Amino acid sequence: MTMLDDTSGQTSAPRQTPQALIAARNIxxxxxxxxxxxxGLIVLxxxxxxxxxxxxxxxxxxxxxxxxNTLQAPSAAHFFGTDELGRDIYSRLLYGSRITLTIIGLVxxxxxxxxxxxxxVAGYFGGKVDIVLMRLTxxxxxxxxxxxxxxxxxxxxxxxxxxxxxxxxTAWPPIARLARAETLTFRQADYIAAARLQGASATxxxxxxxxxxxxxxxxxxxxxxxxTVILTAAGLGFLGLxxxxxxxxxGAMIATGRRYMIDSWWLVTFPGLAILSVSLAFNLLGDGLRxxxxxxxxxxx
Amino acid sequence: xxxxxxxxxxxxxxxxxxxxxxPAVRDVSFTLGRExxxxxxxxxxxxxxxxxxxxxxxxxxxxxxxxxxxxxxxLLTAPERKMLELxxxxxxxxxxxxxxxxxxxxxxxLQIAEAYRTHVRCSKGEARAKAIEMLSAVQxxxxxxxxxxxxxxxxxxxxxxxxxxxxxxxxxxxxxxxEPTSALDVTVRLKVLRILDGLVREKGIGLIMISHDLSLxxxxxxxxxxxxxxxxxxxxxARDLDxxxxxxxxxxxxxxxxxxxxxxELPVLERKDSWLEPAEERP
Amino acid sequence: MTLNRQxxxxxxGQGASILVTLFGLLILTFVIGRIMPTDPxxxxxGEDATQEVYMNVYQELGLDKPMWQQFFLYLRDLATGxxxxxxxxxxxxxxxxxxxxxATIELATFAIIIGAxxxxxxxxxxxxxxxxxxxxxxxxxxxMGHSMPIFWTGMIGLLVFYASLxxxxxxxxxxxxxxxxxxxxxxxxxIDSAVxxxxxxFRSALRHIILPAALLGYSxxxxxxxxxxxxxxxxxxxxxxxxxxxxxxxxxxTIWRHAFANIRxxxxxxxxxxxxxxxxxxxxxxxVFAWPGFGQYLTSSLRIGDMxxxxxxxxxxxxxxxxxxxxxxxxxxxxxxxTR
Lengths: 301, 283, 340
Ligand SMILES: Nc1ncnc2c1ncn2[C@@H]1O[C@H](COP(=O)(O)OP(=O)(O)OP(=O)(O)O)[C@@H](O)[C@H]1O
Ligand SMILES: [Mg+2]
Description:
The complex is a heterotrimer. By secondary structure, chain A is an all-alpha fold. Chain A has helices spanning 17-33, 35-52, 54-57, 89-125, 127-141, 145-156, 160-187, 190-197, 202-238, 250-257, 266-293, 295-298. Chain A has a single domain (39-300), classed as MetI-like fold (Orthogonal Bundle). In chain A, helix 10 (250-257) packs antiparallel against helix 11 (266-293). Chain B is an alpha/beta fold. Chain B has 10 helices and 11 strands. Chain B has helices at 47-54, 80-86, 98-101, 108-119, 124-137, 143-147, 156-168, 186-203, 214-220, 247-254, and strands at 8-17, 25-32, 36-41, 61-64, 67-70, 73-74, 91-94, 174-178, 206-211, 223-228, 231-237. Chain B has a 6-stranded mixed beta sheet, with helices on both faces. Chain C is an all-alpha fold. Chain C folds into 2 domains: 2-79, no CATH class; 93-339, MetI-like fold. Chain C has helices spanning 5-34, 40-45, 51-60, 67-79, 93-128, 133-147, 150-164, 189-195, 199-236, 239-246, 251-289, 294-303, 307-335. In chain C, helix 1 runs antiparallel to helix 13 (307-335), helix 7 (150-164) packs across helix 9 and helix 11 (251-289) packs parallel to helix 12 (294-303). At the A-C interface, helix 5, helix 6, helix 9 and helix 11 of A face helix 1, helix 6, helix 7, helix 9 and helix 11 of C. Residues 17, 20, 24, 41, 43-49, 60, 96 of chain B line the site of adenosine-5'-triphosphate (ATP). Chain B: It is a peripheral membrane protein. Chain B: Residues 8-254 form the ABC transporter domain. Chain B: Keywords: ATP-binding, Cell membrane, Membrane, Nucleotide-binding, Transport. Chain B: It comes from Tranquillimonas rosea.
């Protein structure tokens, strides 16, 4: 779902380093003023902290089964109850946040460079290179990302790593589009022309001058896309094509909990709430960032 | 209603657009009878803003005034419902730029007819007839055809006349014309001005004419307000324009190219911060 | 309207770019099919076939040829309408898909209607009340819709509205009781049952479709709301809106008759795109609601690595997307006087 992306808003990201600093300060001020975005930040902080300190915060081992205590309702001993194998859902959710963070991190690491590479090269060289690369991007964009990821995972075999690969394969095109648009705006800039006159190679110009310029907006777009990535990952997990049991991946937890849903509502409710709040947090945060960076929306005409 | 009481009475009108620090219009006062009042001033001096403020059409601005009356209505306190009755029917405004002022996806004629149908209960056919009649009144040669054109299919001058037709259709008592003739050629301009003039003479409407064009205002209007940076720097009778006392007005006059005048370089307009002080009362 | 040269060139260029995209689509599906871990030969001949039988089929499928030749064989098969046979059902894949598609289209259409009816007015309202509390509430509400894991919301919905409250039907397209009672004419159950005058079945179908459609619609309304809001914001500041106000039109009339009229064309594009994205949600929600549609067919095929079925499904989704893009493009041309 690359649906909430309108590239138009992003092209006006800061260009110079000092401006980037100013922008960063503006963003901070803006976030502080906008409660929904602040909520997003808080949720993400909680996510990161619970991933870091999962062993400390967890009350049980997330993998240890306790067949005496299966399907227990939430109580003081088990905050969010236990699952069909007697494992503590609260502790599993905590450890699951590590998986979520891993997915987010790895996808970003893969998608950012690919998108930047394709976008800057297409934008810098223009002409045939541009046409070919952008056609390629369009082909990938002409699928809904979940379905394409599904197909890739099916081809590669279901596992967490393959899910990450598949998601990355479908998540780079919007980044490439954005990087290309950014590159086009300052391809003509004087300092690029100067570098070219001094005989700097294209690789060097792209790497030294253009990529750093695209960085801020690409990072923001990555943040924006994380909500989609999380939902896709959870969807893959739910269909049994992502993380495999006994990994405490939230989507997979919902899939196994589904069988016991009618009598034990907590099995699906809590992992679902976790997915919902993290993806909502990214969406709120991204929405706030977009507003903060869109000059058209800043002055209130 | 007695002749002495002005149709429009504005005292210390100020308008500040939200998100800006300085007001676009500051302490503007004037009255208007059944006459032609010109407002001149350079671009950005707040002329259009004054016009819109009178119709209370500035949703993103703060408007303050000591007094703002139109006939028996206190515009400052008038509720939106009252304003809906006034707008179009009793006071209307010919907007500046026909390229942007007409709805791009609606046929011109329908937009004109809408002005009539908003205030008068009538059939579509009647409104159409009325609109076509008005179109020919503003010197459009083939009104039936123009009625069915989209705004991007008409020329700038035609658009301006369509706008004029639209705003005069419901017989308003006060017309604010924001540069109504800037895109018209000389012959059409004269005809259009004659229509407006006729309205003032025969129907006794009040006309506010916003313009850059000093010579037009001089020959067409009874009185002139000179605006500079949101303030009225001088108010005078049009025929006294040459005797203007304020340096800004003198500058504006001197900056007019004149046929047969000297071929020297046109003087550059002088600007002084002191002009931003409240203007002293001038008789 | 006359077709001038510029139009022709535009149409040609567009046709070419569609063809290129289509070709890319075919390559993509082909690659996906080739790297699938399942052995297509094994799937046909079974586990205990002899080596000789295996090799025969291997050659029959053209698997001994170089990749590019295999790709052209694939294209040739597609051109003759041969999409292969499903391992799971043993029927031609295309037949399976055509059978499953109406259920999905019915669901998605119902959903997009709900999504548009929800998203468009909310977007207009958010634009009109920009930066006021209504705007903020609408923003959070629609982002919420965009953040829901739809398969989870589906379950919770079933739990609450079906299991607890009993307001809606459960999984499937209709009650077990009615299955097979309505002759299959169009595949669209609501239409078929209405045509057959089977109002009980119609009511049952309605009770079953309403929950998944509402959830899908809500999730797609987020995008529609957002775009409507931003389109409207562009229009509200336009001068012609002021013109309408000068004429004495009320704010509501101005908004709907003038500003909104100007974004209708853009909205059509958006709704078409949202419709395509719905298919994605449909894959997940069909699993939850045991909805016998395209999404379920795709996921079941994926689970057992049914290569032909998966390839064709992906191809069809791509085709639907491309078609939606073309349709929205055409609508754009037809409805906007400036592009005629
Ligand atoms: N919607 C708005 N928001 C903020 N500022 C505005 C807005 N509209 C006008 N202004 C500012 O108010 C001032 C006065 O504008 P106004 O349109 O009244 O000028 P004007 O005298 O009509 O100029 P022109 O002769 O070019 O039409 C200008 O400085 C302008 O930038
Ligand atoms: Mg103006």
